[in-house]
């Protein structure tokens, strides 16, 4: 089954570790926004334009301040989920991060670079209110989105800024270049090493039709958005849940997805699944009355390669539930690992070999009986 990407420090951002080295600034922080004003600029005017992000597509290391909307949602001083700051007082995350809408015990950390040690730019807030999407489905993970109201607003700095959100008419063609950030596991079951720097990974959108074929027919709803590297090795993972997937358009960073679920992490042909932020503009708008988040329409040009995608091995694709390395090693290990990974001939794809094996056995038996 699909694993949700919650729990402490799990996840799979396999790219370079974000460096902690700060530009040599002393004392003063130069900002593009007026931080002394008690009112300050509206979130919609400053969203998605971090002054310290000079990311080039294909780049690897990002200094502190690259992803100033990244939040760590903590319980009992431990990281549980990611989140994103969307205005001065609201953080967006995934519904599956919360057992209930009781805000007690949560502590939201912003402006943070490492989970361990001192973070001079860090600011934390307790939570006044948690709004879980009323149609969140804990089994299908449909509508996996939640809003958290901070106990008091935060001031924007170079290290704490809101992200813009994908507006409802946004289009993300297959292959759209995206970035995911978080403190989750760097591989299945492997937490990020000390001092637990914020990780970033570059992934590409995988269209819903192809993603549905790969993750299991019927598993991907219109409210989901997939991304990954079909070759494997790049993905979000446990502990990244609730964190942002962002796309840059005309120098503005727009959040397209919320880390939601996946089969394992970074496995080949199993892209990660994200909540499709653009499906929720109306819902978000209905809960945030003042200092509205900035909604930006993301446009993909050209024809979406996914628009007429048909599952290559029929519409009934299912996913092997066992955490067994893929592709399977050859020759097969003996004794076979348990649970037996080469299920039935009705299982597709992975068990092609076993179907061939079974069929040839049948042929030999038929031959012998003649
Ligand atoms: C919240 O987290 C910050 C940073 O880890 C910590 O300094 C602070 O004491 C925490 N606050 C509460 C109320 O737990
Ligand atoms: C949601 O499902 C997970 C398993 O996927 C389970 O551990 C959890 O308790 C469920 N939560 C609720 C609120 O039912
Ligand atoms: C979608 O994009 C990925 C690269 O990100 C590519 O591997 C895949 O073949 C594309 N799908 C289609 C249907 O073109």
Automatic annotation (TrEMBL):
Keywords: Disulfide bond, Hydrolase, Protease, Serine protease, Signal. Pfam families: Trypsin. InterPro entries: Peptidase_S1_PA, Peptidase_S1_PA_chymotrypsin, Peptidase_S1A, Trypsin_dom, TRYPSIN_HIS, TRYPSIN_SER. This is Tryptase-like. PROSITE patterns: TRYPSIN_DOM, TRYPSIN_HIS, TRYPSIN_SER. Residues 1-21 form the signal peptide. The gene is LOC115201689. PANTHER family: ACROSIN-RELATED, HYALIN. Residues 56-289 form the Peptidase S1 domain. One of its GO terms (molecular function) is serine-type endopeptidase activity. SMART domains: Tryp_SPc (SM00020). GO terms for biological process: proteolysis. It comes from Salmo trutta (Brown trout). It comes from the Eukaryota.
């Amino acid at each position: 089954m699909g694993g949700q990407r919650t729990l402490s420090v799990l996840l799979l951002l396999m790219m370079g570790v974000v460096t902690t080295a700060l530009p040599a600034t002393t004392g003063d922080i130069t900002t593009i926004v007026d931080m002394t004003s008690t009112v300050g600029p509206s979130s919609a005017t400053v969203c998605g334009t971090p002054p310290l992000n000079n990311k080039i597509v294909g780049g690897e290391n990002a200094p502190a301040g690259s992803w100033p909307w990244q939040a760590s949602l903590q319980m009992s001083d431990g990281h549980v989920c990611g989140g994103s700051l969307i205005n001065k007082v609201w953080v967006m995350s995934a519904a599956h991060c919360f057992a209930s809408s009781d805000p007690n015990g949560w502590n939201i950390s912003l402006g943070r670079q490492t989970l361990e040690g001192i973070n001079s730019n860090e600011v934390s807030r307790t939570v006044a209110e948690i709004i879980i999407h009323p149609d969140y489905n804990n089994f299908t993970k449909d509508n996996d989105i939640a809003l958290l109201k901070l106990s008091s607003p935060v001031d924007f700095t170079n290290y704490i800024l809101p992200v813009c959100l994908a507006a409802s008419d946004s289009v993300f063609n297959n292959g759209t270049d995206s970035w995911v950030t978080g403190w989750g596991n760097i591989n299945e079951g492997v937490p990020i090493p000390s001092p637990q720097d914020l990780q970033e990974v570059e992934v590409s959108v995988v269209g819903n039709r192809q993603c549905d074929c790969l993750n299991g027919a019927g598993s991907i709803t219109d409210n989901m958005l997939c991304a990954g590297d079909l070759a494997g090795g790049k993905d979000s993972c446990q502990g990244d849940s609730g964190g942002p997937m962002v796309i840059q358009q005309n120098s503005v960073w727009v959040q397209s997805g919320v880390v939601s679920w996946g089969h394992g992490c970074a496995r080949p042909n199993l892209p990660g699944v994200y909540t499709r932020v653009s499906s929720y503009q109306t819902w978000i708008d209905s809960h945030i009355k003042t200092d509205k988040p900035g909604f930006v329409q993301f446009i993909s040009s050209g024809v979406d390669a996914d628009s007429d995608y048909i599952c290559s091995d029929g519409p009934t694709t299912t996913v092997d539930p066992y955490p067994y390395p893929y592709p399977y090693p050859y020759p097969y290990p003996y004794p076979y690992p348990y649970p037996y990974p080469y299920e039935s001939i009705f299982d597709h794809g992975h068990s092609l070999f076993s179907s061939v094996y079974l069929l040839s056995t049948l042929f030999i038996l038929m031959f012998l009986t003649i």
